Amino acid sequence: MTYKAILLLLSFSLASCVTTPAVDDTKTYYNDQELIAAGATQLMGSDIVGSFAGNTLYGKYVDHTKSEQDPNANRWVEFISGDGRVAYYDFTQLVQGTWQIRTNLICFNYQFEIPQPENCFVVYGLGDGHFFISTRQQTTGDIVATILGRKNGNAAGLELK
User: Fold this and answer.
1) Residue 136 has what DSSP assignment?
2) d(CA 130, CA 23)
3) Residue 57 and residue 131: Cα distance in Å, rounded?
4) 87 and 160 Cβ atoms separated by less than 8 Å
5) Which domains, ranges and CATH numbers included, belong to the chain?
6) Where are the beta strands (DSSP E) in the chain?
7) 37 φ, ψ to 5°?
8) What are the phi and psi torsion angles at 48 (to 5°)?
9) Which of 24, 70, 110, 114 is the most buried (most CB within 10 A)?
10) Could you read off the pLDDT of 72-115 as tens digits, one per residue?
11) Rounded to a whole number, what is the largest CA-CA distance in the chain?
């Protein structure tokens, strides 16, 4: 009986030593395969809405040349309203647009002076971070942007038309 009790105590103490790996916030991920290997999961439509609708996102475009020197380069902020409108600011210009969910993609249409095609992204979550994955033929699977932070409401006070 004592032998079983010792084994039971030993198994409990060993089980308490198991830890969940921490997310490395300093690592830059470049594609969906790297994210999946790190334990990221794809967000489905309702999860995307729950994570982004009514929030201000603070993000950064991923530099795939890996030559970026300025840590503040390629930053942006965007308010994603709950009614399908967006206000996007890249610290140069404020652009209005719309967003919607198509199956498990988030799609954006912006009103730039030169019309651009709609951009749709697969979204992955890893820890507190979110990543927008390209669906364009030439760059499918590449991470386009990393969400660095998010706040409730229009925290940056971006004008929304």
Assistant:
1) S
2) 12
3) 12
4) yes
5) 27-152 (2.40.128)
6) 41-42, 55-61, 75-80, 85-89, 94-102, 105-110, 119-126, 129-134, 143-152
7) -60, -30
8) -65, -50
9) 110
10) 789 999 999 999 999 999 999 999 999 999 999 999 999 998 98
11) 80
Residue 67, pLDDT above cutoff 80: no
Contact, 49 vs 101, CB < 8 A? yes
Tokens representing residue 103 in the block: 């199956």
Confirm if 79 and 158 have CB atoms less than 8 A apart: yes
Report whether pLDDT(5) > 80. no
φ, ψ of residue 126 to 5 degrees: the values are: -145, 110
Helix (H, G, I), strand (E, B) or coil at 32: helix
For the chain, give percent helix, strand, coil, nearest 5.
Answer: 20, 40, 45
